[in-house]
Each structure stands twice: as structure tokens, then as C-alpha cells.
Write a structure and sequence with these properties.
40% helix; globular
């Protein structure tokens, strides 16, 4: 499939088109029966990925989203009917804590100036809010919610499509995937109970389908919040991985003090996992999440289906 060249087709600007989310959105819209002119924004327009998009009829623009590039960002959004926006997470330190927020607000302002029909934002729920101040170190989640609130007050027609837990971080060679032990078994270690739920999403394949639904599904559109992913606990994940690979996979809870020795990012993940366990990943009950997903019309890929279609070994 290639992007439309018809002037009557709506223009969709996709930020981070070479990333997991942006690329997924582009693939979903290219495969849609509806015609779209696609404009992909990237920091590197000479990469192989950017060249591959060009071959599919996507217009590629080299734009770094940042307050220092306000003019370029506003220009890139000009003429857009729809915008998909995802922010790049910044280092979790005091010096950079506002960069992601500032960049998100910049994209909202550019969309307002462009008078877009719909701004689809990749938002997340704040752990600080969900936990009533107990978990305050999950800055990427908190930052995205600040941008969400700014967007809702901006006057820009909006839809929030919230990505679940990336399957790629817990499967295969992912940073939190089970590790092979000397006896040939596998061990998954995390700082939370095995009953901790994850809303697992095969992001490069499935995320874009939810964004497509936000644009095309009349039940969604402006004012909608779309929740993604398949619910699975760590214990269920271990069982599914073991079944798929024909291996023994165990789960082990890492004590808080030992886990946090890994530094700032380890602290962030400790709080993210435990906020999820105690208060949930999304700010609505599981039953409401399932009903929300039914409304989107997107078939939720189960964990077994994700593993069956996985490109490469599910355990390494």
C-alpha cells in the first residue's frame, strides 16, 4: 500500500514516524481503505527507515520537535487535517524534567495554529495522581498527563490513545524479559508481586490500529480516550512464555532495596510496577477497559497470539 496523492485525501502528520508508535500509525493508515496523504516527521531523513517510507509515498520532513525549533514545528503541522503526536522521553533528572512537557505543549500549540480536525496524543495516566502522591518518580507518565491536561484546555479537538506495556521489553531480548540460567531454565525478575497486571501491547503491529480507530470510528473521534493492550500478570506471562518456547520460566520478586541499587531508572520502574499493582495502569477498572476496547472495534491481540506471531525467539 502507498499513501494517496489525491488533494481531496486528508493529510495526516505523524511525529516520530521511525519509532514504534509513529511507524505503527503510518502502517495502519497505509493499509486503511480510506485514503490519506501522510507526512512523517523525523530527526533523520537520511536513514534507511525514512527512505523506506518515501518509497511508500510518505512525505518525509526532517524536524526535531523542540522549543528551539518552534518555527519549523509550526510549519510542519501547517495544512494537516490530523496529527498523531508522541513525545520523546527525556532523561529522568531535575535538569530535563520539563523538556518532554514543553515539547508536548509545543505540538499542541502548532496543532491549534494549523486548525487541525483531530490531534491524536499518545498519553499516559500519572502515577503521582493514581497513587495520591505515593509514587512520584515515574516522570514520563506524569509528564504526559500534564500535556494531556494542556491539550484538553487548548481548544484543539483531541483524542488520547494510551499505549500499553510494550511487549518488546518483556519478550525476547527485552530489558525485562526472562534471562537464561545455567541450568537452562529462565528467570524473570521484577520488584513487584507476580499478580501485577500488565496491559501488553505489540506496539509496532497493533498501536496504529487504535489510532486509526480514533480517526475513522464515529464512536470515537474528538473527546475520546482509547485504551490499548491485553491484560496479563507477570505469572501468566511466565507461563505463556514457557509454553511458547517449551522451556521452564520462573518468576522472582526482587527486594525493593536491591532493585533500587540500579539507580534513577530502576527507581522509576519500581514505582511504575508497584503503582500498577496497587492502583492500576489505567485510571478505570478492568471491566471499563474491556468495554472501552470493544468500542474501538480493534481486535485485542491476546498474549498467546502475540507470542505466536513474534518475529524471532520469544526467549533468548
Amino acid at each position: 500500500m502507498v499513501a494517496s496523492t489525491e488533494t481531496s485525501a486528508p493529510t495526516v502528520v505523524i511525529t516520530g514516524i521511525n519509532g514504534s508508535q509513529g511507524g505503527s500509525v503510518a502502517r495502519a493508515l497505509l493499509a486503511s481503505p480510506e485514503p490519506y496523504r501522510l507526512v512523517g516527521l523525523t530527526r533523520d531523513d537520511t536513514s534507511d527507515a525514512a527512505k523506506a517510507w518515501l518509497e511508500k509515498g510518505v512525505t518525509i520532513k526532517k524536524v526535531a520537535i523542540g522549543v528551539g525549533n518552534k518555527k519549523e514545528v509550526f510549519e510542519a503541522f501547517k495544512g494537516a487535517d490530523y496529527v498523531f503526536a508522541v513525545s520523546v522521553e527525556t532523561p529522568v533528572d531535575a535538569e530535563n524534567v520539563h523538556v518532554e512537557i514543553d515539547n508536548g505543549k509545543l505540538m499542541v500549540d502548532a496543532a491549534l495554529a494549523a486548525n487541525v480536525k483531530l490531534f491524536v496524543w499518545s498519553g499516559l495516566d500519572s502515577c503521582s495522581r493514581l497513587s495520591d502522591g505515593k509514587y512520584t518518580k515515574v516522570t514520563p507518565f506524569d509528564n504526559k498527563e500534564v500535556v494531556t491536561e494542556y491539550l484538553k484546555a487548548s481548544g484543539v479537538p483531541w483524542s488520547i490513545v494510551k499505549p500499553g506495556c510494550y511487549a518488546g521489553v518483556i519478550i525476547g531480548a527485552g530489558p525485562f524479559a526472562p534471562k537464561k540460567q545455567e541450568d537452562g531454565t529462565y528467570l524473570l525478575r521484577a520488584p513487584c508481586p507476580p499478580e501485577t497486571p500488565l496491559w501488553i501491547l505489540h506496539t509496532p503491529v497493533d498501536y496504529g490500529l487504535y489510532v486509526q480507530a480514533a480517526i475513522e470510528n464515529s464512536k470515537l473521534g474528538a473527546g475520546s480516550e482509547v485504551l490499548t493492550g491485553y491484560r496479563s500478570t507477570f505469572a501468566e506471562l511466565c507461563a505463556a512464555l514457557g509454553k511458547a518456547a517449551g522451556k521452564s520460566v520462573r518468576y522472582e520478586v526482587v527486594p525493593e532495596d536491591l532493585w533500587k541499587q540500579g539507580g534513577v531508572f530502576a527507581v522509576l520502574m519500581y514505582e511504575a510496577f508497584n503503582c500498577n499493582y496497587e492502583f492500576g495502569f489505567y485510571d478505570v477498572p478492568d471491566e471499563a477497559i474491556v468495554e472501552n476496547q470493544k468500542l474501538s472495534g480493534v481486535k485485542v491481540r491476546t498474549l498467546d497470539e502475540i507470542l505466536a506471531a513474534w518475529d524471532g525467539p520469544v526467549l533468548v
